[in-house]
Amino acid sequence: MTLAGVGAVLYLIWRGGGFLPRWVDWAGKTFSAQAGAYEIQLSHKSVTVSHRDVPVWHSPKEILVQDALSVDIDNDDAEELILLCWKRGRYGRLRPFWVEKDERSWSQHIFVYEYTKEGLRPQWMSSYIGLDVAHIAAAQRRAAPFYRLLLTTPDGALTSWFWDSWGFTREDANVTFAVFGDNLIHEPIYRYGLRNDEAFSFLFENIKGILRETDIAVINQETPLTDKPSLYSGYPRFATPVNIGQAIVDAGFDVVTCATNHALDMGEDGLSFTGDFFDAHGLLCLGIGTKEARRERPYALLTRNGIRFALLNYTYGTNGLTLPADSLYTVNLLDDKDQVRADLAQAQAEADFVILFVHWGTEYAAEPDAFQREWAQVFLEGKADVVVGTHPHTIQPYEVLTDDAGHEMLIYYSIGNFISAQNERSCTKGGMAGFTVSLTPDGYRVTDYTLLPLTIIGQGRGKFTTVLPD
To answer: So what's the pLDDT on residue 4?
Structure first.
């Protein structure tokens, strides 16, 4: 063969995509769209669309189709055909005015088409998408009809894209959590602060770096707040200076869990003051509130990076204290399994991811008790995604439970104290539950989790601080 002939053969191979990256996997598949009205066949780098068994559209000859899917990506109640494809050049017939001449090399693109009875109509033809994509998929939000487009790179990295009026916008589909245990304010702690540091900054000075780097930071506020110095008290009926609530705000927390066995230590006034204080400062206060608000929605909703979280909080009891029957306020209790199941079902319908904070267990126990195990199964049946426990004042195990349908639930039975003046050695070892929630092809999942050990150190004169490991 002459040199010219070799060149011609190489040119034909190049035109057919023969020199594209080796990681490209040319998919072949057949699937339906629009409730079965259309059939899409992907074969030999091209797509054929049939309507009622009659071919109505073929992908353009100048593109090579790597993968395809059909979903309602723009939330208009009709599916679109999405192609991951290759074409020569980075632009179509129209290119930016500053680009004098398009490139001749192959590049990867996303094309979106609308279905019509006559064929398919182009909706969005991307320029070069800016990253190598080995696979495309779509993930539907649990509580909404619209999808995210998931692009997986050859090395397995996943990126998420949503339809934003015209075209796709990349989103950060990861949210990190840092959850701290009992903020248990004994008398020596608040007396030291009132004498030496009325801002109580010493409580959180060692974790501010974590709080800055975390998307959502949570702490269990074990004790009710008050702004009346005459009422300040420690064990067994706590009334905590409001300065400590302000320290929580100043430290950068996003959420406080307040359904604890000490929630009613100050009665209805303690509930209303504590809830109103955190609400006024922009923090979500979980587990306590008005009966009317609980009937409307027994959880709080919080959105970060496009992910909608439902946050629930319960306690096993309130040390025998009760509110008057005509009280406007309430504390979320683990006393009615059917009610908790109903709460979880409502949360599932409104959120993408459900997290439950629970005050339970046997004090000072190193392992979860039968009550915890029993309720853990209720939470798993209700499809909770993460459970974080407090109250035992000690660290207990954490694990991932899986139901028969394959639903996974990360559970920390107890993360111990964040701060307290308890002398028991086991009570000075706490933990920070750290986990990441990400969008995956199977929906929103926990993709990373840990328990960071913390130690409470008494430094004399009533000063207690929490330190991280070296």
So the answer is: 56
DSSP three-state, residue 178: strand
Name residues of the chain where pLDDT drops below 50: 6, 9-12, 14, 97
Residues whose CB is less than 8 angstroms from the CB of residue 264 and which lie 6 or more positions away in sequence, other chains included: 224, 270, 271, 318, 319, 321, 322, 323, 331
Beta bridge partners, 400, equal 410
Compute and round to an integer the Cα radius of gyration of the chain. Answer: 28
The pLDDT value recorded for residue 306 is 82
pLDDT score at 261: 98
The number of beta carbons lying within 10 Å of the beta carbon of residue 232 is 17
Angle between the N-to-C axes of helices 242-251 and 187-196, in degrees from 0 to 180, rounded to the nearest 10: 80
Give Cβ neighbours of residue 284 (< 8 Å, ≥ 6 apart): 254, 255, 256, 278, 300, 302, 311
Looking up tokens 């398009």 gives 102
| In contact, 425 and 418? CB cutoff 8 Å | no
35 Ramachandran zone, left/alpha/beta (phi>0; psi -120 to 50): left
* Alpha-carbon distances of 183 from 24, 169, 407, 413, rounded to whole Å: 53, 40, 32, 17
What pLDDT score was predicted for residue 19? 64
- Which domains does the chain carry? 11-171 (no CATH), 174-467 (3.60.21.10)
DSSP-assigned states of every residue in 380-428 = HHTT-SEEEEESSSSB--EEEEE-TT--EEEEES-B-EEE-----GGGG
Pairing between β-strand 386-390 and β-strand 300-304 as defined by DSSP bridges: unpaired
* pLDDT of the residue at 439: 86
Contact 316, 371 (CB under 8 A): yes
> Alpha-carbon distance 298 to 296, whole Å?
7
Tokens at 142, concatenated: 């649990």
Consecutive H or E run containing 357: strand 353-359
Q: Which two tokens stand for residue 144?
A: 């909404």
Tell me which residue has tokens 């986990």. 435
User: CA quadruple 439, 382, 299, 285: dihedral positive or negative?
Assistant: negative
